[in-house]
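ping. complex inputs:
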Amino acid sequence: MDVRAHVSMVFHLDKCIGCHTCSVACKNVWTDSPGAEYMWWNNVETKPGTGYPTRWEDQMNYKGGWELNKNRELVLRSQSKGGALAKLFYNPRQPGLDDYYEPWTYRYQDLFDAPSGDDQPTAVPISQITGEPMDIEAGPNWDDDLSGSPIYAENDPNLDRLTEDERQMLFDVESIAMMYLPRICNHCANPSCVASCPSGALYKRGEDGIVLVNQEKCRGWRACVVACPYKKMYYNWQTGKSEKCILCYPRVETGQPPACFHSCVGRIRYMGVLLYDAERMVDAMKAPEASLVEAQRNVLLDPHDREVAAAAEANGISPKFIAAAQQSPVYKYVKEWQLALPLHPEFRTLPMLYYVPPLLPVMGRAGDGIYEHEAEEFFTHLDKSRLPMKFLASLFSAGNLDVVKAVMKKQMAVRYYKRAQDVDDVDAAKVQRVLREAHLTPEQAEAIYALTALAPMTERYVMPPIQREEALDGFDMPSCSPEMCKGKCGLGMTQAPQRGA
Amino acid sequence: MLNVFLFAGLPYIALVTLVGGTIYRYRSNRFSYSALSSQFLEKKTLLWGSVPWHLGVFILLIGHLIPIFLPGLWRSLMVNQAFLLLVESAGIAAAILCLFGLSVALVRRLTVAKVQAVTSPMDLVVLGLLLFQVLLGLGVAMAHRWGAVWSTQTTTPYLWSLLLLQPNLDLVANLPPMVRLHLVSAFVLVLLVPFSRLVHMFSVPLAYLWRAPQIVIWNNPRRFREVPVVRQFVESRRYFLRGAFGLTAGGTLLTAGVMDKAVSFFRGPAMSPEEQAALLRKRLQRLEMTAEERELELERLRNNYIFVANLKELQPQAGKYFIDYQMRPALAFRTEDGLPLLISAKCTHLGCTVASAVDANKQLLCPCHMSYFDLHSGAPSPGSPALAPLPRLGWALMDAQGKLLLKEGPHGRREGEFNVAQLEECGVFICKEYEENA
Amino acid sequence: MLPAATYYEKDDLNSTDLHTFIHPLQAAVPPCWEAKSDWQIFRDLAQVTSKLAEQYFTGPVKDILVTPLMHDTPAEIAQPHIRDWGKGECEPIPGKTMPNITVVERDFRKVYQKFISLGPNFRNKGLGIHGTTYQVDDLYDAYRKTHPVEFWEGGIYPSLREDRDVCEAILHFAAETNGECAWRAYQAESHKTGIDHTHLAADTRAVRISFKDIVTEPRRSLTTPFWTGVTNNGRTYSAYCQNVEELIPWRTQTGRQHLYLDHEAYRAFGEHLPTYKPRPDLRTTRDLDYTATDGGGLVLNYLTPHGKWHIHSTFGDTLRMETLSRGIEPAWMNDRDAGLLGIQDNDWVELLNDHGTVVTRACVSARIPRGICFIYHATERTVGTPKSRLRGGRRAGGHNSLTRARLKPLFMIGGYAQFTYAFNYWGPQGVNRDTFVVVRKIEKPEW
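pong. complex structure:
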């Protein structure tokens, strides 16, 4: 057993209102400098939709993540070792600016400089890269709320698993449905970006699993941008370096949640420590697609198990981290209740960000002009829900319908249980039956309700501050202690980032 | 004269700048080392610029470096007419490839608006110079054929003479002007490397071929006993085989990448876990010392009197060190009349600490630059580097109950009564009031 | 039109219905150019007015003031039926069949002094709303001793000269931020209902929230009878808790919740019961009488809902939010409707009717029902607004260029229980601006 601690996350999609406060919080803190305008380390997508960058999930095109080769070995889809060197000069799969969007601003000065006349001046959009007037044709959230659905939503790669009829129904105005999908770097346990970096600049921090780019080691070969199947590696066109979500590690080190978590209006985000067994990962990564979710769950260890705790301590994990793992809301969602699922487990990177799939659109259905809300036959109707199960399965379980259905049943059972309590219009025997079918006890249902609906910040973010000695930067300047590195600009760099000659 | 500068001065300037400049840039501004790819902004044209150029220049570099570094082998190969023909045509093909790539790149840099946004003047200079250089090379190949052979008699020995620090200009004196220009232009290019994006050629990531897929870095000192790069998710044997294969295949690449190794040689070895632990320990000690100092300082801020020693412990010949109110070292003696004598031990020359022993001439010695100071007046003896006297410090005598018996200011003014009997039990103190007056 | 300071350039207060926090606005930077805070603008206007008045007035003048029949006064039961004295249907009686008429004294030479002083009526008549009044005379006297004051004509008044003074005065005398006021208000409320409600304010009676307090940390407003929620002990605000738990009557004709409205006007308009009403048709709204509906255009119902990214035009016009939307407020329409006109997503379109034109991009979505299009509230026309050929090459308009304000008659019946006028509660108001437009595709916008 090789126990590792990992700062992990759960996003509860039923609670996401798509307000993008997280995106703005992140943008204002980390990516508002030249070269990074187009980057949104945190973005919120409308699903079905093509997302940002366009159709990032389509690995036939982008070649991100891992795959099993003929000998059932785990290999990068984007490159072989030698191939990596051949692709230094030109990487055919690297997304370009057009796959994201061209960042723009407006020529605001025109509003002041306009000659006097009888018409109002206007500030025309100009490119933030060239400064020339431009046509705005794409943005980081272009398909928001199903905008341009015939072009974007209908080309969501996850719809490939649907039949023509199902697709048709999804876009009828009476049965149309959508959900929001907030995304940040998953800080995968088996990151393909790290494995792809020719310079060895990307690394995973041992203590908390945060994946970082050493900006001084990065040489801008861009292999990581291709290799990340979630397209959460970004190339800074100005500095010639790759950048990514750093999970606000300066905040996490002091026990504070990252900016996007802290600002989340819908309180959809949970952060906690997971313990996992690095030895088991080798096999889990090679599981067949249908059992990937199960295999990845099995990598996670029970922090209450004394043997696990002892092994963790022996492995250098601080007691506070182990204590936090025992209270982790993430552990509850992912392992104990099995409600939270990884996004696209078939990329085989073992993402450490899990999603509770949304239940909302399955509540009511219009049929024969009657709007049904009595969900007597709900469990049998799961197949006909507005957001098709196949769609959710494509997102969260590599196509395994049973996994997604089990989650839906649990969520539904909790609702029945609470409805019986609060409104008292559901038969007690039925509640019992529903709970039993969903494999839940009343206590669990109560706990799920509490953590989902009531939990204050202290229960949603259970993060101990990292040990001081662990917070030192692990870059190749011999570890830079805070006393020694005063006045340095942080993020592992000793100087302000400036484009090289 | 110009000849000497161009073929003896310039190459050395270029070489020194190349080595010194790249190392200096790497050490002072490592962040600026990047391939500075603009593929993100423009993809289609780049394919036709970057790929032909890099492929072509790789071939050309090998074709130029082997005759220079392995002239014997090269000559023996060139004896074969067919091989010579092959090499010459491969060279010309590569040059055309380069020419094509560079032209595309130059046009792209000058016409695509988004690429212009990341184009510096140096980029254009380098591109232009490379284009010029490749054109010259192509011209030489066309006008003065069989360069693969004649170069081994001319330029190769010339370059060797440069490397051996015995430049022999005769070897190039009679070469055609185009060849000479090609050489000069090459030197200029070498000179420009540390100032341009060309430094990226030292970053060719050969280490990737054999490194483990995942990199995990622990900062935790509790784990220092473990290897920093830990995890290997896939069987290592397979990677060994692949690595070995990669080594063979990359052998040629190594020639170019050798500089990468050289650079890391100059960077010095990485610290071992033990050394890092030692460094941490040292830092801790330093912190402890600082804390101790702070404590003394606080004591001096808070108290009007600081205990120096019991009077009976003081001796006339060997002083006792203590720290005065200004946190400077000082010495305490007992004079013949039985009273204490306190004098600063900070040399007035450059601030060394004066030794505590009194020599036969009743003088104190500063061991740093041999300044002698009179014990009583503090005045430096003639010829000492120090010019100002060591200042005397005021003191106070208090008995065991803390009653003040006698005080003496830094200038010798005494206050209070005493009798000799009491002296033995007295403690010597320094006083804040004298510090403030001083 | 005068330039007003923005929210980061002035000291001010801000709060919202149902959201129980008092927000301070603080001047992080001085206002740009010649901008001033709203208070300072009005204060300076008052000063100039007073100065001019010195030339034109020798003393106070009498003025007639007409006020509507007000809620929380006896007038709210003055008119059970609709009668117009102007048509001779009833006698004109001020305060009963027509608005109240009062004679007031105005001294325009003193406008400025009065503007910057918290006057004696405030002290003597007490404060209140919803028919509940509490006295603040002792608080006023004490306040005068600890805060800046104005002296004029022998009087000493708390100063309202600076923005900050006004904020302090509001915080000090409002029941939401002064526990004593809340307690007194409950005393008055108890007097009305005959049930003791003061326990709701007993625990917070000593609380005084000053501007400094809310600057230091967010503070919640106190429970008062002027709101219907209870926020004691960290409880979340929820409307009508006090009515249910404290048995305080709803402020309706019967004191209960009304579903059926028995007023003759409501019956006449068919709005006496909240039931489904179909949307008005083109013949009713008559917004396309003068607009050619043929010639490649499509007539669509047009709405202007609140945006996802902004509150009216506020907060939506920043680069961040423009980037997260589409850089312009597009016109949303159904994909099949768009297909009829050959409009693709992000094409330029022109929307026009008798009132104006809008040039913007199309946002084509299956989410929008057929026959409808909408533009989110986007009042500003500062960025990315092309010109309109129909307007003779002048700048096209914003979302409201296509709408017009229609007063809803039912908001003006007055004198009948809860339908009586009260400022910012009930009064003449526009209806939702449902209208019709012609949508056309344009190939190339002109800037």
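Chain B has three domains: 2-202, 221-267, 301-437.
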